[in-house]
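About this split. The held-out portion is used to measure sequence recovery: a designer receives only the structure tokens and must propose an amino acid at every position. Recovery is the fraction of positions where the proposal matches the reference. Here is one held-out target exactly as it appears in the evaluation file.
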């Protein structure tokens, strides 16, 4: 068998799609039968960035990627039948300079140490990328790396196996508590969405994402699919902001994603551990769950999703966040509320009301076709990246 990856079909998913010259190494597409082995491999591969964290995707590793998009591939490297490398591809439509086209999100890029192994992994993986260029017209791929994850930087960036360019830095922010002495500013009208708001919310999300590199096209059925298939997400979960004329100017949706993945912390830096102890000391008063001591500490977290704010106005976002935080913490189910903010963007002003912990990351893009416009040139626009699907 040669090293060329064939187009993925229902029949080919059950067969080896590439085999390096090493007689005991196999490269193939994963199937549902590989679920438990993948989960075990991922649990042994924490992301180290000051803190050590990983995602528990049980009981179904594939469920989160399928929530992202229907077209998903997971590529496995096996040695003597044991997984030693993995990479997942999520293919979806994304906006590039205002037009929708297929893009690829690369996630769970993991490979055990080994120069020859990494070289083969990269070669065969990039062959699949070029097939997607020919078959689907894909021009861009993108991925996320924790800023302080040195091993990932070494394997993916410094050795230039992948031609990644930084698109934008961002942070995952964990809101811990509201500062009681900070008063809220003048608010727009905020209310929960109704079934009758479906069309307007969908259109608002699409038009907002159209201005963002890699933004999601919600008018193509994506929004309806999410509301029907995502666990714990309904249209009524959305918070909407309106101006004085009744025009929709902002929205977001808290989403309890625990049915698909959970954040597991294996080690915390000193500052984060201090915050953990403070939260736990206040738990008898707030009624919120405690955060267990690492390792194997599962974080009781809820994500703020589908953030769309007219002109990225911090006052609109602050008003929505204030309502969301008050409602979520009153439920006494979550220790933290997580969201994503990009470096140097205006929405950071909205968090001056809160104590929070942030973990810096970077979004990287890769051009798969020569002479393709550089996405990073749109430096004043935040990307359409959904951190909770990573």
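Reference sequence for scoring:
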């Amino acid at each position: 068998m040669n090293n060329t990856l064939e187009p993925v079909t229902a029949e080919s998913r059950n067969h080896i799609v590439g085999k390096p010259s090493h007689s005991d190494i196999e490269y193939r597409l994963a199937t549902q039968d590989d679920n438990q082995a993948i989960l075990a491999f991922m649990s042994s591969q924490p992301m180290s960035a000051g803190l050590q964290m990983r995602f528990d995707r049980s009981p179904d590793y594939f469920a989160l990627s399928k929530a992202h998009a229907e077209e998903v591939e997971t590529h496995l490297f096996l040695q003597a039948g044991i997984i030693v490398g993995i990479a997942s591809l999520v293919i979806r439509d994304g906006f590039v300079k205002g037009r929708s086209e297929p893009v690829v999100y690369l996630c769970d890029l993991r490979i055990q140490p080994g120069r020859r192994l990494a070289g083969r992994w990269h070669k065969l993986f990039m062959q699949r990328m070029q097939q997607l260029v020919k078959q689907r017209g894909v021009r861009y791929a993108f991925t996320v790396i924790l800023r302080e994850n040195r091993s990932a930087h070494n394997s993916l960036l410094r050795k230039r196996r992948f031609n990644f360019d930084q698109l934008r830095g961002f942070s995952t922010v964990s809101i811990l508590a509201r500062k009681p002495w900070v008063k809220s500013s003048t608010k727009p009208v905020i209310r929960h969405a109704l079934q009758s708001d479906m069309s307007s919310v969908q259109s608002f999300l699409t038009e907002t994402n159209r201005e963002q590199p890699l933004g999601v096209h919600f008018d193509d059925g994506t929004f309806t699919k999410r509301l029907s298939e995502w666990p714990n997400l309904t249209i009524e979960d959305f918070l909407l902001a309106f101006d004085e004329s009744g025009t929709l100017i902002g929205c977001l949706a808290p989403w309890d994603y625990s049915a698909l993945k959970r954040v597991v912390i294996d080690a915390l830096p000193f500052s984060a551990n201090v915050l953990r102890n403070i939260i736990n000391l206040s738990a008898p008063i707030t009624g919120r769950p405690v955060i267990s001591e690492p390792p194997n500490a599962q974080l009781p977290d809820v994500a703020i999703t589908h953030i769309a704010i007219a002109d990225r106005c911090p006052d609109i976002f602050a008003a929505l966040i204030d309502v969301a935080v008050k409602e979520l913490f009153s439920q006494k189910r979550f220790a933290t509320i997580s969201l994503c903010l990009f470096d140097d963007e205006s929405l950071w002003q909205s968090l001056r009301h809160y104590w929070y912990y942030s973990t810096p990351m970077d979004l990287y893009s890769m051009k798969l076709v020569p002479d393709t416009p550089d996405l990073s040139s749109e430096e004043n626009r935040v990307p359409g990246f959904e951190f909770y699907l990573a």
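Annotator remark: The chain has two domains: 12-169, 172-361.
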